[in-house]
Structures are given as structure tokens and as C-alpha cells.
Amino acid sequence: MTERDIPESWSSARATEPDEITRLSRSPEFGETHVSGVPANGSTSKSVKRRKKDNSDKETVTPSTPYGQMPNWMKSWVLWTVLLALVPGSIGFISMAMLLKLPSAPNCPSIFWPLASASVRLHCAQLAASKQTVNDLLQAIALVKQLPENHPLRVEINRNLQEWSRSILQLADQSFQSGKLDEAIATARKIPKDLSAEKLIDEQMTKWQSIWSKGENIYQTAENELRQQNWQSAFMVASKLVRVDNKYWQTAKYEQLNRLIVSAREDGEKLAKANGLAEDSGVDNLLKAIKVAESIGQDSYVYQKAQATVSVFGRKILALAQKKLDRRDADEALEIVGKIPASTGLKLEIEDFTAIADAQRNAWLGTASGLETAIAQAQQIDPSRPVYDKAQKLIARWQLEIEDVANLEKARTLANQGTVSDLNAAIAQARLIPVNNPRGSEARQEMGRWRAQAETIEDKPYLERAEQISFIEDVNSLQAAIAEASQIRNGRALYPEARRKIRTWTAKIQRIEDQPYLDQARQIASSGDLASAIKTAEQIASSGRALSGEAQASIDDWRGQMRARQNWSKAREVALTGTPEALSEAIQLADRVPSRSLLRNDVNPAIDQWSQQLLDIARSQSESDITKGIETAKLIPQGSAAYSAAREQIRNWRELLKPEPEPEPEPEPEPQESTTTEQQ
């Protein structure tokens, strides 16, 4: 069998519908396995053509002689002799050749199928099926499946039909394993439903769809985890794909999902970095955060979050610009808002902000022309914009301000003349601006400033004369200066300054009047009568006058000296007893004398003497009772002359009190081996 016998592109003209094949095969004019007059080897077409040609040749022969007259060549005995010799040999030769000739294989692509036998159909179907392609297997099935159920070859045909159906399913499964579910199902559905493999086909398609659905569910679950930025959970879910009974999901989709997870995690880290930068809330850091978030691609699972974050960052920058505008820093506000990238999606909000800020900047110039320009700009804002209502309110305010600005400018022109009458005229002009108008607060501030200027011009002569009068600084001149400055009434511009000068002059008068009493008290204290000095100074300390603080400080000092004298006297009295307890108490009383007191010159030597006495007593006590000597030595205060010696003595006594360590037992001598053992 040659390659040309395998049906690759059989002519459609030679094919018939299945019903037509059945009808012809069951026709009484044709045999079960062959067509009458046609060899069973499939050479039908060639034999028919030869027979037709022979008949045609016979019909075209015409006699060249009259009927009943024999040609001359037929009368030749030589010719007949030759014929009689050749014909039997030729017939024998032809017969032997026909007996020895093998039947030729059918040429499947050129067979006229309505007249083909069942064996030829089966043979060509098997050739087609051997190619193991879907189309060839289906063609093989179509060639034989319509043959009668009672045909002698039906068992072989059914076996082949089952095998070919399974082969188609295997090819479909290969498509399924390579990730082509629809193609696999479409291939399986091409298998004729009337075959016994129909149940197997349905089960296989159901299994494919179940496996595919499982893979899709795992993939979608992993994607949901990615959108929530649960990277570890996404990896764990993705690992389930390797257990899906499909090579496409186990390999290609699993690797694809892992790449997505890695990419999404990297993008998540970028988003976290952007959020970290934005926490500072500075314009520069917010712009850096936007740039980082913008680097996340559209195919990323965190792309939507990144875009939302970019918008949030843009609104934060817009809020910072609004703060600047609220502080009337329109230039800085406009500079900030101009840095917001278009990727934030805030184009319209930025345009609205810019329009309002630019209008307010002109309005804040404080001139009528600036207000008119601001109104014209605000009127350009479309009613559909969210800031339209705000713009309308600003327009109404600015329209009121135009008249107020004119009055305020006129008032300022008057005030610039600098005279009291001009200042009063400016104040009267500014009063025309209602308090509730937008410029009402500004007008009141200017009026207060101009009123203070006028009052300063009016009251300054009183203050200047008072200063001239107080120059002598005696009681009478100071009292006259106070009287002159007191003419400046409360609430006037120079009133606070006048009160400060009056307080200074009053204190000078009190110091002049009270200084003799304080000097007298100090003189009494220097004589040693501290009690009388304190009594004299208390007259000043309790009055709340200029020298009250100074007098009270002297009283406190004198009282301290009195307490020091008392402590020193009592310490000397207690020390006379000479006991360790009395000496310790004397040291404590003497140490209460302040270090700045003159008595300290006597106190310090006495403390050293009493400390040495304590050390001598402690040493004497230690001869009979070391513990008692230690307790007495502890009474010596730090800083005294005997302190170091006392501490050294205490350490020595404590060493003596330590118990002597018990002697360690001598080690037992090791037993010596006997002489007999050594000899052995």
C-alpha cells in the first residue's frame, strides 16, 4: 500500500450521504460484498470503462464487403494455420498470467463510495484512522458506521469505532491539557452521539469543565488576595494549582500567577513607600509620593488603589494651598497648586481654585480697581462648578467693599496731613463705613490708630512738662510732676506711659521719706541690738512702700543672726557635759550657724575640738568594748578634722571583730603498695 492510497482529500463527488450508502448497499441489484459484474478488489470503475470501450468498438465496425461475400484474406490457409497455432498458446499464457496476478490495493481517494464494498470501506477507514488526526478519525467513523447492523464485519467495525472514538477523546484531552478547553469540548462533540462511547464522552466533558472551574476558582481567589495585598495568602492559594489535574493550570497558569504575585508585591511596596512619604504632609514629599504611585502600571492588581492614592495626595496638596490662601498668601497658594500633576485627576478643582485665588489676590490689593478686576474674574466661573456659590458670595462682598474702599482711601488721605483736625476728619470719614461691612474691621483699626495719633499730639505737652519739673528730684518737684502727668486721662493714648512715670516718681518720694528709718535700723543692728533694729525696720516693711522689700530683707538677716547666736550659745552649754551624746548634740547645734555668719569663725574650731574628743572616747571604749567604740566613732561628722582618722579606726576595729577561719583538715596519706606487690 502506497501513500497515495491513504485518503487525505477524497473527492466530494465520490462521496454520498450515509443514507445513500445504506440504500445502495442493500439494493437487490448489488451483492452484499461486491457489485455484480465488478471484481471485489475495487476495480469497478476501470472495468466498466473497458467494457464500454469494447462495446463502442464493436458498434463502430462496418463491413467492407457485401453481405454473404467472404474477403480474400479469410480464404488464405496460411493465415488460418498461423491463427490456429497462436490462439491456444495465447489463451494459455493469458490464463496463467491471470492466475498468478495478485489483487491490487484499492486507491481510496479515487473510489466511488456508493458502489464500494464494506471491506473496502473498512480498509480505507483504517488507513485514515492511522493518521491519528481528529478529521481523519471522524472520516474513518463516517465511512463504516452506517453499514447494516447485521453485516458480517459489524463486530470488527464496532471495535474500530470504539477505538477511534477513544482516540478522538485522547486528542481532545491533549487540547484540554494544553489549555484549550473550548477546543477540547468542540472536538469531543464531533464524535457521533449514536456510538456506544457517548456516555464516556459526556463524562469526560463534565470532568474537563469541573477541573477547569477548579483552576479558575483558585486563580480568582489568589487575585482577590492580591487586590487586598495579602501576598503570603496569595502564594499559598497559588500553590493549589499544582494539584489541579491539568498541565496548563499546573505549569503555565501557576507560573503566570506567581509572576503576578511577585509583581504585585513589588507594586505594593511602592505604594507603601508612597504612603510613608505622604505622612510628612509637605508639598515636596507629597509630590514624591505621587511620582512613586504613578510608577505602578495599569496591569498591576494595586493599580486602582494607586490611582485612588494619587488623587488623595493631590487633594492634600490642594488643602495646603487652601491654607496659604486663607492666610492671604495668594502667590504662594497659586505656586503650590500649580505643582499638582494632571495624573491626580483634579484638573477641574485646580482650575476652580486658581480662578478664586487669582480673584482674591486682586481684591486684597485694597483698591477699587483691584476689586473691580476681582469681580470680573469671579463672574467668569460657570454656574455648574462647585465653587460657583462661593464666587457669588465674594462678588457680593466685593461690591460692598468698592464704596467702603473709596471712603477709606479718602480718610487715609486726610490722616496723612498729620494735624489733629485732619486726623479727626479722617476718623469722621471712616465712620461712614458700617461695622458689618467687609472693610468695617479695617476701618475701625485705622480709626483707633488715628485717634491715638491725635491724643498723643494733644497730651504730649503734659508729659514733657512733668519730666522737666521732676528733674530736681526732691519731694516737692516730684509731687508737682505727678500732678502734671495726672492730667492725662484714662483711655488716652499716652495714659499708660504717664502711669509708668508717675509710679517711678512716687517710688522716689517714698524712698526719700523712708530711707532715714531704714538707716536708723541698720545703725541699731550694728551696735548689736538686733531686736530693736528689727522693730524699727518693721515700720517700713509692713507699709508696702518703695523700701518695704529692702527693709524686709534686713529683718530676715537680723533674725537669722539672732538664731545663730542662740544655737552657738546652747551648743557650748551642752558640750560642757562631755559625754558622747552631748558632744554629738553640740556639734549639730553649732552646725546650724549659717556659713556667712561671723560666728562661724568660732564654730568651726569648736566642732573640730568636739570631734577629736569623740575619737578619744571611742578609742578608750574600744579597749573593753570594740563595738561600743565603733558606735561612738560614728558620731564624728563628715568634714571635721577627726573624720578621716575615725573612719580608719572603725575599719581596723571591724577587722578585729571578724572570726578567724577554721584550719583546713590535713589530707590523709595515700596508701602505699606492699613490697611484695612491687616485686611482682
Beta-strand percentage range: under 5%
Helix content: 55-70%
- Tally of strands: 0
Overall, the morphology is flat
Low-confidence stretches: 1-70, 95-103, 673-680
Mean model confidence by pLDDT = 78
* Rg, Cα atoms, Å: 65 Å
SSE ordering: HHHHHHHHHHHHHHHHHHHHHHHHHHH
Strand count, sense and barrel status of the largest sheet are:
none
Secondary structure tally, helices: 27
Q: Could you tell me how far the N terminus lies from the C terminus, measured between alpha carbons in angstroms? A: 107 Å
Structural class: mainly alpha
Keywords: Membrane, Transmembrane, Transmembrane helix
Organism: Plectonema radiosum NIES-515
Protein name: Chromosome segregation ATPase
Would you write up a description of this structure?
By secondary structure, the protein is mostly helical. The chain is built from 27 helices and no strands. α7 runs antiparallel to α8, α18 packs antiparallel against α19 and α24 packs parallel to α26. The longest helix is centred in the middle third of the chain and has 32 residues.
